[in-house]
């Protein structure tokens, strides 16, 4: 069996998605998500100019060998662009494998460890009152786990706050827009926010919060300690991912569980964090972290240290990635939680999805492979539009981590 053709489909139904379609001479094709928010065309070009010519003629069933071909076989390994492309290839090949065997992906990963996948919603508001209101709405929709973000007083345009009425979508058309940041104000505000949420909604709701790489290690330690009374399910990206030693300092001061790695793309980003037990949840998604082949190994390694999986699932990860994540979450024993930001309705014109939200969980049907399809005619109706993630400046103008 051979790969006879592959193409990259770039489409913008409300936001940009890059989808890899690999076709075989057995009449079966597979889909992979290659979306890298704000750098979409870099991955598309890498796939088109380098990876696709190398894939043609190869046996699509050899997922392990092909993974290594595009990892070990690439001298300039790792990096977001390279790994997003490899992830898409790997997902498309596992999709093909499932279709060839006539079985859903989760069966290839060990079958079901659970019937449904616990997900968390995003609650967001310009201020504490709006955020509280938003938490209530998510609970009314049936969610039992909610991430809470709110505008920090006197810090215009904070991370995680929706600009208009709709859900939070940080990428905006054109070149990067600028947001502002002030850690001292944030550190004073965040514990009060969670005190208000607990007072309003009680102890049962699972609460999460994303620091989005904004704190220095000692600031992160202060925050994690101050949030302890509110028993967060997790505190995400308290320090920037590139400074892994920062987690040691945080751990010395707090037992608030830590999730990290939505910007990681290799098991080597995680080796010390996991083996030194500095984190509790892995965030690296299938579509950026090397696909099923790589994440299966990382999940097994994490499981040995009682670290759980908590995949990134923002709207910039396509329905192909979300569906693949649900299969993975159903199968691995050390699953923790899945992020779920429903895509706007227009996305379903392009992607035909096979998952369903019900009572705070997602389930998926038994369509062979990943089970998501793409309508290429509809995709062509939504051409690429350049959009970028913001950059952030401190109140004195210094550029900081967004
Ligand atoms: C985030 C995202 O979902 C999350 O936890 O950190 O909002 C992230 O900023 C975007 O996915 C970036 O593309
Ligand atoms: Mg995050």
Summarize the SSE layout with pairings:
Blueprint: E1 3-11, E2 17-24, E3 29-33, H1 40-55, H2 63-71, H3 80-101, H4 105-108, E4 117-125, H5 128-140, E5 145-150, E6 172-173, E7 178-181, H6 183-201, E8 206-210, H7 217-226, E9 234-236, H8 246-253, E10 258-260, H9 271-275, E11 281-282, H10 291-304, E12 308-309, H11 319-331, E13 338-339, H12 347-350, E14 351-352, E15 355-358, E16 361-364, E17 373-374, H13 376-380, E18 387-388, E19 391-394, E20 399-400
Parallel strand pairs: 4-5, 4-13, 5-8, 7-19, 8-9, 9-10, 10-11, 11-12
Antiparallel strand pairs: 1-2, 2-3, 4-16, 6-18, 14-17, 15-16, 19-20
The structure holds D-mannonic acid and magnesium ion.
Residues 210, 212, 236-237, 262 line the site of magnesium ion.
Shape: globular
Q: Termini distance?
A: 46 Å
**Helix proportion:** 25-40%
The profile of the biggest β sheet is: 10 strands, mixed
Over the alpha carbons, how many angstroms does the gyration radius reach?
20 Å
* CATH class annotation of the largest domain: Alpha Beta
The number of distinct helices, counting runs of at least 4 residues, comes to 13
Ions and ligands: D-mannonic acid, magnesium ion
The count of domains is 2
Structural class category: alpha/beta
Q: Uncertain spans, ≥5 residues at pLDDT below 50?
A: none
Would you report the number of β strands?
20
Classified in CATH, the superfamily of the largest domain is Enolase-like C-terminal domain
CATH names the topology of the largest domain as TIM Barrel
- Measured by DSSP, the beta-strand proportion falls in 15-25%
